[in-house]
What we know:
The complex is a heterodimer of chains A (248) and B (203).
Chain A: E1 11-22, E2 25-31, E3 43-49, E4 55-61, E5 71-76, H1 84-90, E6 96-103, E7 117-122, H2 126-138, E8 145-151, H3 160-169, E9 173-179, H4 196-202, E10 211-216, H5 218-230, E11 238-242
Parallel strand pairs in A: 7-8, 7-10, 8-9, 10-11
Antiparallel strand pairs in A: 1-2, 1-6, 2-5, 3-4, 3-6
Chain B: H1 17-20, E1 28-29, E2 50-55, E3 61-64, H2 65-70, E4 74-81, E5 86-97, H3 98-102, E6 111-116, E7 121-125, E8 135-140, E9 143-144, E10 154-156, E11 169-175
Parallel strand pairs in B: 1-5, 2-11
Antiparallel strand pairs in B: 2-3, 4-5, 5-8, 6-7, 6-11, 8-9, 8-10
Amino acid sequence: MAGVPRKLAWRIGEVVATNPDTPRTKSLFLEVPGWEGHRAGQHVDVRLTAEDGYQAQRSYSIASAPEDGRVELLVERLDDGEVSPYLTDELRAGDGLELRGPIGGWFAWEAREGGPLLLVAGGSGIVPLMAMIRHRQAAGNDTPVRLLFSSRSFEEVSFREELERLAAEDETLEIIHTLTRSVPPGWKGYDRRIDEEMLGEVAFSPGEMPLAFVCGPTPLVEAVATTLVGLGHDAARVKTERFGPTGG
Amino acid sequence: MSGGFISRGFRGRRRRAEDDVRVPPGQYLVEGFPVLSAGPTPRTPLEKWDFTIKGEVDGPKTWSWEEFRALPSEQITRDIHCVTKWSKLGTTWEGVSVDTLLEKVDTAAEYVVAFCDGGYTTNLPLDDVTGGKAWVAHTYEGEPLAPEHGGPARLLVPHLYFWKSAKWVRGLRLVAEDEPGFWESLGYHNHGDPWREQRYWGD
């Protein structure tokens, strides 16, 4: 990381499109004037301002690859949230959205850092990992990747069709789903929370020294990170980020 | 510049006035206690745990867990503020004041680097951890501090963003020159005062 402090200025991005992803999540595509690019895995701060000056801020991970000119955020609607229902229900193409970033230099990956890459996601924790998968594809990189992705149901798998398409085109990208609440008829994949047996089957062996990125709700992240270390993976190569129910 | 920008259709949720004065700019209140850390939770057994003051001191000092717990503890009730924007009001802790730990140490250092299991570090001016402003906390809401919240002991510096309250702390290294710690090297503000919204470099 460069060590030259610079002010992360607030900017007004323009919402150029929105796209429903799952029943609870929605993608926002933004054009951000002066955007200087990001590293896959980084996030932005979003700031909303009401007419009386009241403000609320939240952080959202960037889903798009650095190679993409637009910034894509995936927002999960939290029913009792203050910010996310505005972003999913009210905000529409043509609106401005104030943000600053990119932020965070730890939970980030660049194709030249290599791997193999073990990505473990729970729910909308897929977002920063999606940026890594897209970045790798856009960079024409062939670092072996395994994504273990825990969702509540088939309908709630974020980016499902794009992930299927990317995996079909690329034999070094393996995607393993587990569905924890309901499965469609004929489902042959995992149907439980991620556990030691599953990680033993799916994660690379410790000898292959994967670089692991784990993102999701705290209980999933705690369990996966602890289990990976227990299986013999180097704790220094397990990076975590938590998406709590406090995301608003 | 963004001066005067209004988010079309945003109303937001106002806080009660008595809470509002306790919540720094850009923060929102939570009831739970979110967990944030960069990697797996370290689990050091108490018999292998110790706490060390070292660096620019006349001689390093080390306490075993038993010796540390025999030091006088204080009850602390404070609001805490995480740079990820949540604040939690009125959290109650017990811990040993950093003043107590530094009592028998002679130093000309002006900064400290807290070091932790798992390799995490954070830097603070000595002035921000002395004078009744910082503790090494071992108890949260009457219970031993849980590992995911930094147990067996974490630094508690509630007047700064909570990443300065380093989890799994194992000691303080006193230094003459300031040295950016883990998050401070990765784009986060060197000082981290929530009331001045010092979140990132340049804030």
